[in-house]
Each structure stands twice: as C-alpha cells, then as structure tokens.
Design the sequence.
C-alpha cells in the first residue's frame, strides 16, 4: 500500500508534467504565430518587389535577384515546416511521457 507521501509526490509530478506540456503548447503556438507573421511580412515584400519589377522591363540582374528571392523563400518554407514537425514530435513525446507517468502512478 502506498503512503500519503508517495501519492502526494505522484500528484505533484503529474501536475508538474501537465504544466510543462501546457507551457510547451503555448510556446509552440507563440513560435508558429511568429513564423506566420514573419512569412507574411516576407511575402508582402516579395509581392511588392515583384509587382514593381513586373511593371517594368527586367534586367538580367533583376531576374537573378527574383530567382534568388524565390530560392530563399522556398528554403525558409522548408525550415519552417521542419521546425513545426520538430515541435510536434517533441510535444508528442511529452504527452506520451505524461501518460506513462500518469498510468504508472494510478
């Protein structure tokens, strides 16, 4: 039979893990929001530059610049997607751990 001290510790540990999970979810949402805002700002800039270039004849340098911007945006999108996958994976690990601890102590 478990003593009250052990039950109290288990309850404390469960609450601590749930708080960590909540904090991780909040941080993930903040990061995602920040990424979305940055991407929107980048896209607005790209569209503004693109509209300006398309309204005039483009020089080879301008075409090269556009290709460079497109490549950087594609790379940024891939980094963002990888970051979101990493966050999701980390959160799944925390949830699984919290469930294991909860099952072990109940």
Sequence:
């Amino acid at each position: 039979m478990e003593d009250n001290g052990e039950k109290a510790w288990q309850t404390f540990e469960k609450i601590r893990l749930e708080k960590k999970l909540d904090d991780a979810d909040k941080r993930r949402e903040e990061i995602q929001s920040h990424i979305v805002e940055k991407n929107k700002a980048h896209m607005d800039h790209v569209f503004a530059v693109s509209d300006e270039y398309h309204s005039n004849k483009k020089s080879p340098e301008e075409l090269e610049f556009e290709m460079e911007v497109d490549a950087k945006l594609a790379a940024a999108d891939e980094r963002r997607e990888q970051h979101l996958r990493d966050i999701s994976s980390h959160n799944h690990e925390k949830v699984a751990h919290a469930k294991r601890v909860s099952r072990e102590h109940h």
In short: The chain has one domain: 4-104. Residues 4-104 form one domain. Residues 32 and 84 are 8 Å apart (CA to CA). Residues 4-54 form the longest helix (51 residues).
